[in-house]
Design goal:
- With 493 residues, the chain is of the alpha/beta class.
- The chain contains 15 helices and 23 strands.
- The strands form six sheets. A seven-stranded mixed sheet has the order 15-16-17-14-13-19-20, sandwiched between helices. The protein has a six-stranded mixed sheet with strand order 10-9-8-11-12-22, sandwiched between helices. Strands 1-5-4 form a three-stranded mixed sheet, covered by helices on one side.
- Helix content is 38%, strand content 21%.
- The chain has two domains: 2-250 and 456-477, Aldehyde Dehydrogenase, Chain A, domain 1 (3-Layer(aba) Sandwich); 255-438, 3-Layer(aba) Sandwich (Aldehyde Dehydrogenase, Chain A, domain 2), CATH 3.40.309.
- The longest helix is centred in the N-terminal third of the chain and has 21 residues, at 97-117.
- It has helices at residues 40-56, 64-80, 82-93, 97-117, 153-166, 181-192, 207-216, 229-240, 264-276, 296-309, 328-343, 379-382, 398-406, 421-430, 463-468, and strands at 2-3, 6-8, 11-13, 20-25, 30-36, 124-126, 132-140, 143-147, 170-174, 200-202, 222-226, 245-249, 255-258, 288-292, 347-350, 369-372, 389-395, 410-411, 413-417, 435-438, 453-454, 457-458, 471-479.
- It binds nicotinamide-adenine-dinucleotide.
Length: 493
């Protein structure tokens, strides 16, 4: 049994009320760990420590190259521990070992990327009227509250922690209450490499308790949140009273547009990857497939055949291609949507059930599911299901494809498959989404900004944009001729 602890001011801590939360393996429903159930008191203690540490300048005053050296060491240690981290990620989240393995390497690469970036030029100077010289410097924001979801427990943590620390901030970090295992391991690594105490603090616990306190606290300068759109709206409201900066990476219902002139085998293959990787629990999942009518039937036939062949099983079985959903509660939500889809009159072309055979009875497994005969206003077309459930729709022409693609509240991602390069770019330019692909789905890079339009969020993670989220911008104007301005009393005449 894994016993987890929180990390505040460089010390491992139990919860102030000594309560613990069981952490469950979604592949079989067994308890694998206990995590302290953080309280408002614990959150306040971590916030106070982060505030004091920031104000003392222990971290922000270090030359960037020194902060970078810690981040490089963290990257190295993540790689050294890749096997264990992969195993733990699969155990806690349920994703396959293959999926978890990529996440862990990506996390190391993200630390390395920001370690490199922070030592590169980042200011500006302006040629203004003599005798002044104007320039801009970037500074850390201060205390950053970082709140993340359960679908990429380590990677989503690192997308925030690496740039926040690189920029010189101190942090109060809260992982999802469902998946604290690899975040705890990351904090062990940060402790091992000697990040000064008080710089990086971690509190576990419920969103409405610990997360709420972080978002509302007057001692926190910024909150960077990844999670559901409903929670994002709440965080924004909580942050408003203290006018703290918010950065929000939220939900999606992303369109994947397949034109008749695309290579159908490639389109089907990427479309499967787009929805069923991570068992559909991916914010950018291609959960609405739009297919040009002349190849619709052929596409659906091929897609359904391939969906039915996906091997669903425990993430730690090397033969499994798709793991379980993360929790009993989430399983119920996804099954409810499948029921709603049927009630709305959509037709199930594949899957549609919980899997309760072959040793998967106690896990949270759902068949790869395909809905056809859907209408644009159905809830299964409009709302994020966050499971292995896709709707396949038909379109007549380019104009209708764009209209349907943009017709949800979300705007996170989208893709176009076609052999016509000009058409691909025309359609992509019309998509109201922040992350897009042509003839591919899902590949993403630490170098490139990640984030959504519309109700999919505010701000960007990753790349130079992801660093800027964690920085203030200051203009400095220098008088090169030190003498009175003489504006009043005509002293200069
Ligand atoms: P969630 O919104 O329920 O929880 C996310 C985090 O917020 C958790 O740590 C949770 O404890 C905390 N939280 C919950 N209520 C809170 C409150 N009232 N105040 C403060 N914090 C609170 O989301 P989830 O179910 O963990 O994750 C799934 C969602 O995350 C999906 O909607 C998915 O699209 C989204 N997501 C988005 C991205 C992106 O980059 N846009 C990436 C991953 C996941």
């Amino acid at each position: 049994m894994i016993e987890l602890q929180m990390y505040i001011n460089g010390e491992w801590k139990e919860s102030s009320n000594h309560e613990k939360r069981p952490i469950v393996n979604p592949a079989n429903g067994e308890v694998i760990a206990y995590a302290p159930e953080g309280t408002i008191k614990d959150a306040r203690e971590a916030i106070d420590v982060a505030r004091k540490t920031f104000d003392e300048g222990i971290w922000s005053d270090l030359p960037a190259v020194e902060r970078a050296s810690y981040l490089f060491k963290i990257a190295g240690k993540i790689e050294e521990n890749q096997e264990e981290l992969t195993r733990l990620e699969t155990l806690d989240n349920g994703k396959t070992l293959r999926e978890a393995g990529y996440d862990i390497l990506d996390a190391a690469a993200c630390f390395r990327y920001y370690a490199g970036l922070i030592t590169k030029p980042d200011g500006q100077t302006y040629h203004v009227a003599d005798p002044m010289q104007a320039m801009v410097v970037r500074e850390p924001i201060g205390v950053c509250g970082l709140i993340v979801p359960w679908n990429y427990p380590l990677l989503m943590s690192v997308w925030k922690i690496a740039p926040a620390l690189a920029a010189g901030n101190t942090i109060v970090f809260k992982p999802s209450e469902i998946t604290p295992v690899t975040p705890k391991k990351l904090f062990e690594i940060m402790d091992e490499v000697g990040i000064p105490k008080g710089v990086a603090n971690m509190v576990f616990g419920a969103g409405p308790v610990v997360g709420h306190e972080i978002a509302a606290s007057s001692k926190v300068d910024m909150v960077s949140f990844t999670g559901g759109t409903k929670t994002g709206k709440h965080i924004m409201k909580m942050a408003a009273d203290t006018m703290k900066k918010v950065s929000l990476e939220l939900g999606g219902k992303s369109p994947n547009i397949i034109f008749a002139d695309s290579d159908l085998e490639t389109s089907v293959d990427y479309a499967l990857f787009g929805i069923y990787s991570g068992a559909g629990q991916v914010c950018s999942a291609g959960s609405r497939i739009l297919v040009e009518e002349s190849v619709y039937d052929e596409f659906v036939n091929q897609f359904v055949e391939r969906a039915n062949e996906i091997k669903v099983g425990p993430g730690n079985d090397p033969d499994s291609e798709m793991g379980p959903l993360v929790s009993q509660q989430h399983l119920e939500k996804v099954l409810k949507y499948i029921e709603i889809g049927q009630q709305e009159g959509a037709k199930i072309a594949a899957g549609g059930n919980r899997i309760v055979s072959n040793g998967l009875e106690t896990g949270y497994f759902v068949e790869p599911t395909v809905f056809v005969d859907v209408q644009q206003d159905m809830r299964i077309v409009q709302e994020e299901i966050f499971g292995p459930v896709v709707v396949i729709q038909k379109f007549k022409d380019e104009e209708e494809a764009i209209k349907l693609a943009n017709d949800t509240d979300y705007g996170l991602a989208g893709a176009v498959f076609t052999n016509d390069g000009a058409k691909a770019l025309r359609v992509i330019k019309k998509l109201r989404a922040g992350i897009t692909w042509i003839n591919a789905y899902h590949p993403t890079y630490n170098e490139a900004p990640w984030g959504g339009y519309k109700q999919s969020g505010i701000g960007r993670s990753l790349g130079t944009f992801g660093l800027e989220e964690f920085q203030e911008i200051k203009q400095i104007n220098i008088n090169l001729q030190v003498e009175p301005i003489g504006w009043f009393a005509n002293k200069n005449e």
